[in-house]
Fold each of these.
Amino acid sequence: MGGVPPVEAAALFTLLEEDPDVEPVAQVRPSRSRGLGAIAEPHPACPPVAVVMMPEERARVLAANPQVVVEIDQPLSYTPVSWSSGGPGPTTPTDPMLAVPLAEPGRLGVRVKGNDGETVAGAHVWAIGAGASAHAVTGTDGKAGLTLVADTPATVKALYIHPVGDYWPLRLDHPRLGGGAETTVELTALAETFEGFPGQAITGWGAQAMRLHQIPPTYRGHGVKIALLDSGVDITHPDLKETVHTGYDFTCLGGERTWHTDATGHGTWCAGIIAAADNRTGITGIATEAELHSLKLFPGGHVSDLLEAVDYCITHGIDIAQINLAYPHPSQLVAWKLLDAHVAGIAVIAPAGDTAGPLSYPAALHGVLAVGALAHTGTYPVGSPHTAVQPPWPGPYTAPFTPAGPGVDLVAPGMSVITTAPGGGYIPADGTATAAAHITGLAALLLAHHDNLRPQVMPRTPARADHLHALLRSTCRPVPGADPARTGAGLADAPTALGTSATWQHHPGGNETTHAALAGHPPQG
């Protein structure tokens, strides 16, 4: 650099610690003391990182040095979903600055019960008004009290009920809400849709669509290490307590003890799709014998925590990393860290984002397999939020929240997928992360059982990660009538990817039912 000596990380960190305008928070240094981290030596792409608090002016001065990368430590989150998309949750349709608050806010009481007669506790209730939105959570009595800041009951355009498990979500357009009277809403129990569930296991429509039921039953992903970077996993769930044994919480100190709690349910949803136990009840994951690591990054995580989590993957010999958290702006540091992961032979998979627009980060980065979501008519009951946005023809269609591209590599089932929920229950989950979990599970089967990818044939190298991504893309089936910009190579197909014949058709036994949706055919509930 024109004779300018390079900036040493240790010297820079010392200067930052001595600067009275700078408050050091943490340091993120590549760990190469054990495992495959040594592959990236002696020059990892991602340099040591100092996480500090400093005035904006001081940051600009530091960023003027071309040898120093200065970034905001962006918070991690799930990508937003618009109410009009019919996705998992509504957002405020009106700019709050334009809302006209009432001098005396109105009150709306909602009681949520199931058609099985049970009260539904913990359900999220949104009232979507003409002026603003209101939200509350039902108590143990199934009741929620909402404050209408800029609406009356007559101007509420929709009620949206999202239970935490065991019931289908519900959307009521133009509900009739009595002034001051409590409104009772009835949800449909999953057990009514699937007779005997969860005591009687079901095969989800996602597994049917990807023809996972047509591969040898001995294919279970044994020996493959998967890291799920999400909100943690509830390992007390009957389908997960024997499959998720280790992890780390990067959102707090001493995180090794708190990775097994899930504040949102999101990580538990994906963990079930990937690796739920084959115990003949509830659901069965795609790669039931894979080793699943729960890396908790939400709520409270930042990009610096993501860097540490990826470093964990490098040093712990992870084969596949599914990164479910996103950040709003490009990060050079994350791009470098994922390059180090690639050098270590880790295949990185990410949801394309529930944006209905451009891809989110890190899915938009080179080398990351970006997964969009597919839906299917008939996989949800009348009254589901999805009925308002489904096409007039039966069969598969791109989920309305999946990105418009470009950059989507392939799609997988990502709407109304029955999976595990915190507390021991089950939930119909939506989102491109749900779709990505299907691809992660299939990728684990490929690494364990494909003739050209098994560890005895191809060790964990960048070439293996590239081959895995290419194989997943090249063996997809096109989605009829869908925009290729939204579906990429198409729907992942398990028998084709694994190179097996489709003669291993699994016929549900006496305690298993099928919830199917094959391309072009309506599902059977």
Amino acid sequence: MPHPAPAAPSASFDVVIVGAGPTGLTLANQLGLFGVRTLLVEAEDKLIDYPRGVGMDDESLRAFQQIGLVEQIRQHTAPHQIMRFVNGRGTLLAELAPQTDEFGWPRRNGFVQPLVDAELFAGTGRFETVEVRFGHRMERFTEIRDGVDVDLTGPDGEPLTVRAGYLIGADGGRSVTRKSLGLAFEGSTEPTRWLVVDLRNDPLGAPNAYMGCDPARPYVSIGLPHGIRRFEFMLFPHEDQAFADDDANLHALLAPLIPDPVAADVIRRRVYTHNSRVAGTFRKGRVMVAGDAAHVMPVWQGQGFNSGIRDAVNLGWKLACVVRGAASERLLDSYDSERRPHATAMVDLSDKAGKVISPTNRLVAGFRDVVFRGLNVVPAAKDYVAQMRFKPMPFYERGAVAHPVRPTRGAPSVGRLFIQPRVTTRERDDVLLDDVTGPWFTVLAWNNNPLTLLDDRAVETWRGLGAHFVEARALCQLHWADGDNPEVTVVGDLNGRLKAWFDQRPEAVVVLRPDRFVAGADLAQNASSLTRRLTEAFHLIPGGPDVSRPVLPVALPAHGVRATV
């Protein structure tokens, strides 16, 4: 049956997001924080409640901190979750137990995704500029000269057309947005399937995660918050959906792992196939894809969820700058050039991790065990694995960054996520750095007032963009007030981490993007020239309107939607 003819646009928004998963919800919160008129549409009539992600990293928690929801979300996490790989005899092969908190939060955290999604949804209710509509399916879209017309079908089948400046497809691995754009989605699909089961009243009760590298049947066992236990079992070719749905078969799978499988209290179960695919581009004109619509990967490193959050955090501030007239559309090109290479690296890492757990050939599994035994006797190799130093960290070689004109000594800083130590201000003791700098641009100088380093033109550039000026000092100098400027926030380096960071590099001035990546860094006397290079990198519009610095809402209202535990 042909679709009804769309009516004239009934409403207009700066941005329309398709898909109320974690990527779309995080982006909606970001855009709400930045004052962008946003419509989020979801085809389902409520949040998805089937078993999905269980691993959240420190970058995602920092993103939730930025949008003012980290404390609500942390209620549904298990911090410092250790992942242990064991073979069929229960022998420990490897352990992932990173101790770093360089970005302010634990690197590995178990979590319950339906509850986290519910908190993100509740967070959208803080913003008058954000509207969420469930039961609205996108049928098609048409890009016009200065926007996108989006045709929707509402809950009662009525056609509806809205106009957007930009359309973001966060509509999952089967994305209608990506398919409508005709984007390639190259990669592979594993022939094996996995049965994923969540149990209430955890029958084991132990924390942490176990990857059962058992050639007889690879499995996963993960302790989650609120008494939930996640099990995942590889299914063999002859085990179909009917096999997975049969309680007797589930009890047989659980029997080697829990005392009384018949008494297991099943919340939800679902069969998954693992895909490894990346879209050919993340942007085409005024339409972009994000999250699973842009990349899908196996679950082994828990990076599908986190990669989608990285997309949202990278894209949100850029959309805000363009929509608010501070930057040209060319800034949006950096979304693809920055995010696609790293997403591809995470897909590759997830594929490699799957090759560790999934062999069912006993000779291959035995060889794997020998390799890991060898690694474990070399302390440096064992620590490399335990601290997850193999994990590719985002590094933007090109995009909305200004790398040094000349090579510098020490670790590169531009294009990397800035650290988040604890600091002290004259008004607040022992707080995370981002809670001081805020969720927008920051010009931060070590041991210098940044306003005294910048010429008048550079100062006006950053003022017009709503940037926050920050001077970092040794803690003992915090209350020295000679020459202070009320426009500059002074922070004391509480534990010496800021000094150590600057000590390893020649730069003493850094410009932080809203996503907390270092956009540029240079010597103090070069602060003004750095500003001019960043003006080009951000594609700022000369004489564009001033942008006010975003401020988080004070209160989070109660919300009617809650996920089932």
Amino acid sequence: MDTQGGRNIDPADQWVLDPETGEYRLHTDAGDAPAATVPEQGGRRARREAERRPAPEPGEGAHDGGGGTGEGARRGGAARSRKAKRSTKRRVLVWTAGTLGFVLVAGAGGAYLLYRHFNNNINTVDVGDAGSKNATSDDAVNILVIGTDSRIGLGGKYGDAGSVGHADTTILFHVAKDRSNATAMSIPRDMVTGIPDCPTKQKDGSTKTIKGTPQASFSPRFNESLGQEGRDPGCTMRTVSEITGLPIDHFILVNFEAVKTLSTAVGGVPICLTHAIDDTDERGQGSHLHLAAGPHTVQGEQALQFVRTRHSLKNGSDLDRIDLQKQFLGSMIRQMKSGNTLTDPTKLFKLANAATKSLTVDTGIGGVDKLTALAKDLNRVDSEHITFTTLPVVDNPAEGKNHRTVVIDQTRAPALLTAIKNDVSLTAVAKKPTTADAKLKGPKADPSQVRVTVYNGGGPQGAAQTTLEWLQNTKGVAHSTNGGNAPGAKQDRTTLAYAPEQADQARALAAMMGLSASALHPGTGASGSGSGTGIGMTLTLGRDFHGPGVPLTDPAKPPTGIPQSRADKKECVG
């Protein structure tokens, strides 16, 4: 609700039909306020309806945006002297999900025109079974936000005018099942990873499968999952699903213009720099952004320069640029959720118009009603529980000293992905030790006294043998055996079953394997007569196993050593 002259004004009632133009205009009692119009797309229909509509009765004159001169201004002044009847059904729907950048505002009097206008703005891509057909879900939700570097239609302003664009910036936005928290994980574009086969819908309705590219030493890079050989966003969704083990429900694709229009629509995005930026290298390349250290507000072209900056950062890399982008997105979320945006009908209309024109989405959310349903659901997550992080990577060892690409850090990444899969909030406050943690406390047996049979219950092919060799050759666990594939269904988590008297052996093996207390199951599946004697313990490798020595953290606890930032916190970067 807005307040003018001591009266509460419903923002929807400020959008009124101008019978002369057939367009909806923003009306305020301040006669010098500029008129804001719904673009021509809705105007023609409105004119036809206005022509068929009977003339208003005396005292029911239409509002005028005012502020002009001549006949229009005199007519507007007379109209403002009469009060229009307020429909009891007229209301405003004000909703924002800052992470997606979508805001809808509509009054019942003009709802159809606004709905049709916004709906026609949205571009969609049918990704087939790569995503969900339902806009909302009672389960966790995974949305892939893809920033493309496509230059098509931009007149060569940002380089190759014919570039179809790749996955230049990609963020996996995971929302917990209970909507208590969300994690936005950036995926580095220069990460070397395999790309799976990808069925893509063609314009004639047929389906063409683009052959995947297996991972080699130097290629392919993750950004090639979009655009290369005709790959659509569904291909990027399938690639991310393979990397993370998470089903991807929807995608939202944004281009250069989206950053410019959205940042302008909210009145600018506050950012803060620890160091000055002068992003033009010796070859004249870069974003050409020049900002002093300290706080700034960026919008339009300058906002685009900010999220593209990397040459003048610490390492001049894409990873440095991701830090800027996370700050920008967090600040935009705060800006969109602020009262200055939600109570300003002009900003709301501009934001809704800019967002819908700038986005391309999958058909599962390809409409204002579907986007609204999804975003209202996701907006239940409080900003303080939205965490930004980056998929852990390391320099590609195959390149030697030429650090152009990166690969997944198999030591740190599994813990983060496990936490995301289990809806663990990265902002969770450290909890007090539980009784389960006590299982790791106490003396550990010497490796030569540890007896264990290793089964593969869901790990990579050959995992049991690989683990056996690692235990025997590097850890000194000579009394270890390969049990082959575990009987029964595959299990998600790695477990260690042991008899109570083998607790010292279990603690020793847990320390070697990086097992959490929750992975230890005393008194089940094993028996013996003491340390180093009797039947050995049973180690069953689950889907969470990524290699011997790779720590398996408790899925109920947030991982440690993962850089992160929160959407509700103002921070300086650079």
